[in-house]
């Protein structure tokens, strides 16, 4: 079991081309800082990928620390110069096809991560920053807890 995390920057279109280059650098720096802060999350540094300048994805070998990792990643990134905020979909599951780039990987964790992120974008869940999807009866309870946590954040 792993955690695949798919994220997107909120209101990324507000950044011009110069700021988008800076944003790319800040996303990468904040990821490195978060992996150093949480080595037990077992972040796969090689799997970290950014596409289209505002979406990024990575793999954590320790799913139990995935939410904590994402929260601190969000905090570290928010303290950077451009103060970007992001939504995150966390998918807990298996890897069917392994690769050094997370966007070339496949498996239930990646499908669930994408589904969790897409769910956040629907009007029913507007304002939610993080969603976790696993094959578990706890999905609804996790959703309630995450809404409360996002409210506090």
Fold and architecture overview:
Helix 3 links the parallel strand 4 and strand 5. The two termini are 28 Å apart. The mean pLDDT is 82. With 153 residues, the protein is α+β, with helices and mostly antiparallel strands. Helix 1 (17-37) packs across helix 2. It is built from 4 helices and 5 strands, in the order E-H-E-E-H-E-H-E-H. It is globular. Helices cover 40% and strands 23% of the residues. A 5-stranded mixed beta sheet has the order 2-3-1-4-5.
Observed structural traits:
153 residues; five-stranded mixed β-sheet; 5 strands; 23% strand; globular
Question: Can you summarize this structure?
Answer:
Helix content is 40%, strand content 23%. By secondary structure, the chain is α+β, with helices and mostly antiparallel strands.
Give me the strand/helix succession. EHEEHEHEH
Whole-number mean pLDDT:
82
Number of helices: 4
Task: List low-confidence stretches.
Answer: none
| Strand adjacency order, main sheet | 2-3-1-4-5
Report the principal-axis shape: globular
Distance between the ends = 28 Å
- Number of beta strands: 5
Largest sheet: 5 strands, mixed
């Amino acid at each position: 079991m792993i955690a695949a995390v798919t994220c997107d920057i909120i209101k990324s279109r507000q950044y011009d081309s110069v700021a988008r280059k800076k944003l790319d650098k800040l996303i990468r720096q904040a990821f490195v800082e978060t992996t150093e802060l949480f080595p037990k999350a077992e972040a796969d540094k090689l799997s970290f990928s950014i596409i289209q300048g505002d979406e990024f994805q990575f793999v954590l070998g320790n799913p139990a620390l995935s939410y904590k990792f994402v929260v601190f990643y969000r905090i570290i990134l928010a303290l950077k110069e451009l103060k970007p905020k992001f939504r995150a979909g966390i998918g807990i599951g298996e890897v069917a096809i392994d690769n050094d780039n997370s966007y070339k990987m496949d498996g239930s964790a990646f499908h669930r991560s994408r589904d969790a992120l897409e769910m956040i974008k629907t009007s029913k869940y507007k304002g939610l920053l993080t969603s976790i999807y696993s094959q578990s009866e706890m999905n609804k309870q996790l959703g309630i807890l995450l809404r409360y946590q996002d409210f506090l954040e």
